[in-house]
Write a structure and sequence with these properties.
Elements: H1 5-24, H2 30-47, H3 50-58, H4 60-79, H5 83-92, H6 109-123, H7 126-134, H8 136-161, H9 167-190, H10 197-200, H11 204-242, H12 244-248
Length: about 250
């Protein structure tokens, strides 16, 4: 089964515009930026195919795995491709100038993390989770907000990681997101009963599924978000150690 044809057409149009922007933008990496966007969108589309959605409706583990793919695989792939910049250039033919307004994307890493964390927490409140499972329109909105906020988080963090002045905000944003994600995973892992009405009928199996889903969320947050924070820190320490100023002080 395939995703809704409207989603496929919209994604195809975005890929065409993005590719045009990458080719016209001298500051773009044609290989990474072009393919990263296309692969990220393809992964996102696969994650919302009817087959995957049906599995997510039956199994909490499948639903959490679906979210992990959207937030920890597809979102960073798209974010790494400079989506706003390339889409702007591809759609308008004009150069992208973001640094002059609002400090540029690098200045928004921590606010983006707060938004992403708030969205994740909100959709795991039982009332909102059950509403999303009961109504397809709300479910689509859930995925759009989760995915959109994750792309925003990764995009701003990646910009901040390239700016020595913003390095701290990138690390804080990722570390904070990792802590909250792992904390939510622990709540799901240790809850004494199923929290979501959609799975309560499963009894002991539902509780086991919830625990596995919580463990998956905890491990994903620690491996990806915390791992990225550590990686950014080590990268900058290595750069500082190799800098002329550091070498001259030895």
């Amino acid at each position: 089964m395939l995703p809704d044809i409207a989603l496929v057409l919209a994604a195809s149009g975005l890929i065409v515009v993005h590719r045009r922007g990458v080719l016209a933008d001298r500051g773009a990496n044609r290989l990474l930026d072009g393919w990263g966007f296309a692969v990220g969108l393809a992964v996102a589309l696969i994650a919302v195919t009817p087959v995957v959605e049906a599995a997510a409706a039956r199994s909490f583990v499948s639903h959490m795995a679906q979210h992990q793919v959207l937030l920890l695989v597809a979102a960073p792939l798209i974010a790494a491709s400079l989506p706003l910049r390339s889409l702007w250039v591809g759609a308008t033919g004009r150069p992208w100038r973001s640094e002059a307004r609002f400090g540029g994307p690098a200045a928004w890493a921590i606010p983006a993390a707060l938004v992403a964390v708030a969205v994740v927490l909100a959709w795991h409140v039982p009332m909102f989770y059950d509403l999303a499972m009961a109504r397809s329109s709300v479910h689509s909105f859930e995925h759009a907000t989760l995915f959109g906020s994750a792309v925003g988080l990764w995009a701003t963090v990646m910009h901040a990681a390239e700016d020595r002045r913003r390095l701290g905000s990138a690390v804080i944003a990722l570390a904070g997101t990792a802590i909250v994600g792992a904390g939510l995973g622990v709540v799901l892992l240790t809850a004494p009963r199923p929290l979501y009405a959609a799975y309560v009928a499963g009894g002991a199996v539902a509780l086991e599924q919830q625990q596995v889903g919580g463990a998956l969320m905890k491990v994903g947050a620690l491996l990806v978000h915390a791992g990225a924070a550590v990686g950014i820190t080590l990268r900058w320490l290595h750069r500082f150690d190799d800098s002329p100023a550091s070498a001259s002080s030895r």
